[in-house]
Amino acid sequence: MLVKIEVNNRIIEARKGETIMSALESAGIKIPAICSMKDFTPTGACRMCVVEVEGKHGLVPSCSHPVNEWMKIKTHSPRVVKSRKTIVELLLSNHPDDCLYCVRNGNCELQTLAEELNVRERRIMGRKNNYKLDHSSPSIVRDPAKCILCGRCVRVCEDWMTVFAIDFLNRGNKTIIGTACDKDLNFSSCINCGQCIMVCPTGALFEKDALTELEDALHNPDKTVIVQYAPSVAVTLAEEFGVKPGKEVGGLISAVLRKIGFDRVFDTSCAADFAAVEMAAEVHERKKRKEKMPLVSGSCPAWVKFAEQWFPDLLPDMSTCKSPQQLLGTILKTVYAGKEDIDPGNIFSVAIAPCTAKKFEAQREEMTRKGLSDIDSVLTTRELAKLIRLYGIDMNQIGSEIADEPYGIPSSAGRLFGAAGGMSEAVIRSLPHITGSKDPSSIKYQELRGSKGRKEAGVKIGRNVYRFAAVSGLSNALPLIEEIREGKGDYDFVEIMACAGGCVNGGGQPIGAGDTAVRARMKALYGIDEKETIRFSHKSPAVSALYHEFQDGPGSKKCRSFFHTRYSERKVLL
Amino acid sequence: MDGKTNDILRKYPKGARDSLIPILQDIQDQEGYLSEQSIVEVGRYLNLPSGKIYGLATFYNQFRFEPPGQYHVCMCQGTSCHVTGAGDVRKELEKKMRLKPGETTRDGKFSLEYTACMGACHLSPLIRVNDRYHTRVAPGDVKGILNSFIEGEEE
Predict the structure, then answer these.
(1) Contact between chains at A165 and B39 (C-beta distance less than 8 A)
(2) What is the average pLDDT value for chain A, to the nearest integer?
(3) Domain of A132?
(4) Do A168 and A251 lie in a common domain?
(5) Cβ atoms within 10 Å of A33's Cβ, excluding its own
(6) Alpha-carbon distance A570 to A309, whole Å?
(7) Are residues A234 and A201 in the same domain?
(8) What is the b/e burial string over A86-96, where b = at least 16 CB atoms within 10 angstroms of the residue's CB?
(9) Phi/psi at A297 (nearest 5 deg)?
(10) Which residues pair with B73 in a beta bridge?
């Protein structure tokens, strides 16, 4: 039902029961807000969104107050603007004045608010806090001095990720955001997904810098610096340079990376192809031996840590195949190094991922071979954009190039790994090849696409029906995990991605992009799949070459010894 | 599991969330503080993340996270003590003990805590050390009070 309300002396219509803020938004009036988040219950804590309502004594928080018929609202009256400005001034009163040196300079909500409200002088002097930077995590750095206590990170950690790694500690003006027992982040239950970074309005949370070590390697003549980029990075990077979301620029990335000075440029999707075939072999093998089903995916490093901490009983059912990034890392320092006659110790292997947890994964003990890490450094999409700017490369003035042989041309199935459900789709496509059945007539699985939290599909291959489930966002994974534990569901393969929507919405992606951008990135990946000629992972030249090299098939002993690993229970403060 | 914590948890058989604060209070009464282990155990029992419990416990002044010292010094923070000069006594205490509230000296001898009104306003400012009360304390008395414990031991 629609009701009429008066806003700034104009009559607008609003839906009964909706909040003032949502009604104002539909009418094209922007209200500043800090603590409010889409899809979350409003808390009304920051008071930035206050408006003046005739007849009400105090100012009303528009994010949580419902509209009433014939409400008379003033959104930008002097009283309202003064109140908002004071809040920003108070937030700035103990904020470090180092915008120029801050990672979020130019992309900071506090900076924007101060600018919009025309804060031009320090009116309120507060005592500066001097909390220590928490460098302990391999993925995420916390700088509590820059925290404005909006609580968004706490809420995504609780509600989306169900990790509860951080919470408000202490009270009043001593309040900070911290972990259980105020430990460093690396001792906490943090799974390094980086979604807290994505919602942080300031520079209080950011990824651990990998550029310095990378620069050193790039300028070291003894090192062969090899880089790989993930499919979701290819459909996102353009946004950092002002292009509308949904443009695929894999070719440009290859060209740019060569210009920067990387010796070889590869596509992580090639390893995703390899992973899809290996996982299909695992599913088939389990089904044949009538082992416990389902096989649970282990490609998402945030999900893997989550399982190690809370669901160690699921680990035996987790695919032993390493994630695409780590697979390619292993291949480069073994097979490729041998063929090209490079000392693996002189390879500096870099991965560009949409993810902060990949930084954690790269330094895991399981991901080493003869004392060498499979991957030496991981950059997020944001860091890649920084690197490109640092090298002064104009993205509009360069042409596309293809990535290097032999890991430069993936199938479109491998690229689908970037979107939640894509891994399942790739595994389904390769299953007939593994089981020796005919390829199905249609290979597009619409039910596994899109941004729904849980997607399912049943596919008949040969005489068997295989059931797939793909969940993204760990809060969506919990019910499924319970079903698996109770033996319900009857699935054969379960794909779990920590971030909602999969890697395209990873914690290393551009900040502040929003849902529509994520959907556009997904669509871009699906678009590639429509056009691509090679649409099966097992038909990718890189994959067949690799099995040829090994003189063995998918799931063979040799493959296992190289490309598979096992995870075990992890003790942290839960 | 720690047997003592277990005994406390057994007193709350429903394991409902609203028993969190009473459980924490019982643990603190018994152990003198909330250890990391006890927080984790309570979390497991009530099915709450330890981060949430720690967040809640730090909200309240009543909970400590370090074991109290042999001599647990409580400084009254009540209104009467405040107006009769508790602020200066407090500063002197922190300076002499080199502690902040909630902390314990490294040798485990002394710990410091600020409490709410102890109900002896006519004798303010008030310090309680274990079970002994020191009344009408001036900043100059702090050194003597602290020394009396050290000397008392040496005798």
Answers:
(1) no
(2) 94
(3) 102-109+119-207
(4) no
(5) 22
(6) 5
(7) no
(8) ebbbebbeebb
(9) -65, 150
(10) B112, B129
Q: Give the containing element (helix H, strand E) for A236.
A: none
Q: Is the separation of the CB atoms in B127 and B89 below 8 Å? A: yes
Q: Report the residue of chain A nearest B42, measured CA to CA.
A: A574
Tokens representing residue A270 in the block:
């090639």
- The residue among A207, A237, A257 that closes a domain is A207
Residue A16: pLDDT above 70? yes
User: Which residue has better confidence, A130 or A337?
Assistant: A337
Residue-wise pLDDT tens digits, B76-135: 989 999 999 999 999 999 999 999 988 999 999 999 989 888 888 999 899 999 888 999
CATH classification of the domain holding A517: 3.40.50.1780
Average pLDDT over residues A420-425: 96
Average pLDDT over residues A518-532: 95
Same domain, A168 and A274: no
Nearest to A165 among B40, B44, B51 (CB): B51
Could you tell me the two tokens for A160? 């989306």
Tokens, residue A5: 């309300």
Write the pLDDT tens digit of every residue in A237-277. 999 999 999 999 999 999 999 999 999 999 999 999 999 99
Where residue A283 falls among pLDDT bands split at 50, 70, 90? very high
Would you mind telling me the total number of residues written for chain A in this entry?
574
- Look at residues A207, A238, A261 and tell me which one is the last residue of a structural domain: A207
Q: What is the CATH number of the domain that holds A23?
A: 3.10.20.740
What is the model's pLDDT at position A65?
94
Instruction: Quote the distance between the C-alpha of residue A538 and its chain's center.
Output: 27
**A180/B58 CB distance under 8 A:** no
Q: How many domains does chain A have?
A: 3
Q: Which helix (H) or strand (E) holds A32?
A: none
Q: Which amino acid is at A84?
A: R
My answer on whether omega of the bond before A138 falls inside 30° of 0, hence cis, is no
Residue B36 has pLDDT above 70, yes or no: yes
Nearest-angstrom CA–CA distance, B42 and B33: 14
Q: Which residues of A touch chain B, with CB atoms under 8 Å apart?
A: 164-171, 178-182, 188-189, 573-574
pLDDT at B62 exceeding the cut of 90: no
Nearest to B55 among A167, A189, A573 (CB): A167
Name which of A65, A69, A54 is nearest A13 in CA terms: A69
Q: Among positive and negative, which fits the CA dihedral A73, A75, A76, A82?
A: positive
Are A275 and A352 found together in one domain?
yes
Residues 6+ apart with CB under 8 A from A419: A232, A449, A501, A502, A503, A504, A521, A522, A525, A526
Two structure tokens written together for A347: 């390879």
Ramachandran assignment for A314, one of left (phi > 0), alpha (psi -120 to 50 degrees), beta (any other) = alpha
List the Cα angle A290/A317/A458 in 5-degree steps: 65
Report the chain A residue with the minimal C-alpha distance to residue B34.
A181
Q: Is residue A84 part of a domain?
A: no
The structure tokens listed for A467 are 């059931």
| Cα gap A56→A82, rounded to integer Å | 18
Assess if residue A477 is contained within a domain. Answer: yes
Q: Are A277 and A430 in contact (CB under 8 A)?
A: yes
Closest-CA residue of A relative to B53 is: A180
- Chain centroid, CA A190 distance in Å: 14
Q: What is the pLDDT of residues A474-522, one digit of tens each?
A: 999 999 999 999 988 889 999 999 999 999 999 999 999 989 999 999 9
What domains can be seen in chain B, in order of their start residue? Answer: 3-59 (1.10.10), 71-154 (3.40.30.10)
